[in-house]
Amino acid sequence: MPQTRPLWLILAPAIFLILWSAGFAVAKIGLQYAPPMTLLALRFGLVILIMAVMFLVLRPPLPETAADWLHLAIVGVLIQTVYFGFCYMGFVNGIAAGTLALIMALQPIVVALIAPRWSGEQIGWRQWGGLVLALSGTAVVIVARLDIGPAPLLGFLFSALALGGIVMGSLWEKRFGRYHHPVTANLIGYGAGFICLLPFLAAQGVGPVEWNMPFIWVLAYLVIGNSLIAIGLLLAMIRAGEVAKVSALLFLVPPLAALVAWVALSEKMPPLAWVGLVLAGAGVYIATRKHKGTAP
C-alpha cells in the first residue's frame, strides 16, 4: 500500500524553485557591495555559526563511519565551493543572471546522460521529451531578453565549472548519500566548503565590504533562504526521488530567475519570454509527473 507523502515534501519543489530562482538576482545585488570570495566566506561562516549553535542545542548524531564523513564533505565542496564559487566568479566576469541560469539549466540533461551508469536509473522517452521541451522553453526565455553581446570567454569558463560542480554534487549525493540529521549534514558540508574556499579567498584577498541595509538583507537571504532552506530541500528531494526527475525541476529556474531579475534589477522581460516560461513549465511537468499506478 503506497505511503502518503508528507506535506513538506509536496510543497518542497515550489518553495525550492522560488528561493533558488531569486538567488541569482540577490547574489548579483550582493556582489555590488562585496567581492565574490568575501561574500561567500561571510555566507558560509554565518551558516556554520547557525548550524553549530543548533548542533549544541539538538545534539544530533554524527556520521558513524569515515566514509559517511567523506561523502558529506565531498557533496559540500562540490555544491558550496565549486558551484557557488564559480557562479559568483562568472557574475563578476561578465555573465548576466539570465545567461548563467540558462547554462545551469543544462544540469538535468547532463545528469540524465550520466545517471543510468552512475546510479542505475532508467530514463524513459517521456522524461527525455519533457527535458527537451523544458530546455527549449528556457532558451526562448533567455534569448528573448538578451539585448547585449556575448559574455567574455572567462565568464563562460567559470559558468561551465559551476555546472560541473552542481552536476557531480547531485550525482554523488544520490549514489553515496545516506540519511543524516540535517544539522549534522549541513555543518559538515558547509564546514568542508568553507575550508576549501580559504585558498581562493587568500589568493583573491579579503576585499572591502560596504555594510548597509541592502547588503545585510542580501546576506540574510543568501544564508537563510538559499544556504539553509533551498539546499536542504534540494538534498531531501534528491534522497526521496530519482535524481534525473528531481533535477528536471531546475528547468524552471531560468524563466523564474528572469522574472525576478525583471522585478528586482529592471531587466527586460519581452512577451516572447512569457511563451518560453509556459513551455519550460510544461516540459518540467511532463518530465516529473508519474503515471497512475507507478510506485512512489
UniProtKB/TrEMBL annotation:
Record has Lyase as a keyword: no
Annotated transmembrane regions: 37-58, 70-91, 97-116, 128-146, 152-172, 184-203, 215-236, 248-265, 271-288
The segment(s) forming the EamA domain are 14-142, 169-288
Pfam families per UniProt: EamA
The record, for InterPro entries, names: AA-Vitamin_Transporters (IPR050638), EamA_dom (IPR000620), EmrE-like (IPR037185)
The UniProt keyword set, sorted, is: Membrane, Transmembrane, Transmembrane helix
Task: Give membrane topology per the record.
Answer: Multi-pass membrane protein
Localization, per the record, is:
Membrane
Tell me a GO cellular component: membrane
Major location category of this protein: membrane
Similarity comment: family membership: Belongs to the EamA transporter family.
Q: What is this protein called?
A: Drug/metabolite exporter YedA
From which source organism is this entry? Neptunicoccus cionae
* Taxonomic path: Bacteria, Pseudomonadati, Pseudomonadota, Alphaproteobacteria, Rhodobacterales
